[in-house]
Structures are given as structure tokens and as C-alpha cells.
Design goal:
Largest sheet: 2 strands, parallel
Radius of gyration: 18 Å
Order of helices and strands: HEEHEHEHH
Number of strands: 4
Helix content: 40-55%
Number of helices: 5
Oligomer: single chain
Strand content: 5-15%
Number of domains: 1
Strand order of the largest sheet: 1-4
Distance between the termini: 52 Å
Length: 105
């Protein structure tokens, strides 16, 4: 019963939403500060941190509950569920292998 009371205090009232931003690869100092050579460098999906912030705030102003900054990333996110599951898995495995290899260098 105590946990139910706690949840009632934490969870917002109906009709209230918490907007979220789910960016793809963003230029930042994270890899350098983390001491990692990995990360997704370059490519059409990568955007600047300033652009990510602008597009996220614009989406929140429009009332969007979930924002995917970057046009190419938005398209990729919408197309991914349409691909056959086997192709999705193969592509994820290829990306993971590439990232692991870059992190070991």
C-alpha cells in the first residue's frame, strides 16, 4: 500500500505528459571526455548539439511528446520498423561489431 501512495505522489495527473528527446548521433565532447575512440563519426545522421537542442525545443513547443532531431534520423526511425526482422538484426550486428572495433583502437 505504501508503494501505491508513493506512485500517486510521483506520477502526474491524467492529461499531463513529459516530453522526451531521442536524438541519434550528436556532435559533442562526450567521446573525448570519456576517453573513447568509438562513437558514430560523420555520416548523414550526425547533427550538431545546437541543432539537436533547437529541434528538440521546437518539437516540445509544438506539443510533441517524443522528438527525433535531424531529418535523416527521423526518416531512419520511421523506416526501421518496416524492414524485415532478419535484416534489422543483421544491420544491428554489423553496427555493433563496427563500434566495438572502433572502441578497441
Amino acid at each position: 500500500m505504501a508503494s501505491a501512495r508513493r506512485c500517486a505522489l510521483i506520477w502526474p495527473a491524467p492529461g499531463w505528459s513529459s516530453p522526451r528527446c531521442a536524438p541519434g548521433p550528436v556532435d559533442s565532447e562526450f567521446d573525448k571526455v570519456a576517453g573513447s575512440a568509438g562513437g558514430m563519426t560523420g555520416g548523414p545522421l550526425r547533427i550538431s548539439a545546437a541543432r539537436c537542442a533547437r529541434e528538440a525545443l521546437a518539437g516540445f513547443d509544438r506539443g510533441a511528446a517524443l522528438v527525433f532531431p535531424g531529418r535523416a534520423y527521423q526518416v531512419a526511425i520511421r523506416v526501421l520498423p518496416l524492414l524485415p526482422r532478419g535484416l534489422q538484426r543483421r544491420r544491428a550486428a554489423q553496427s555493433a561489431a563496427r563500434y566495438r572495433g572502433a572502441a578497441r583502437r
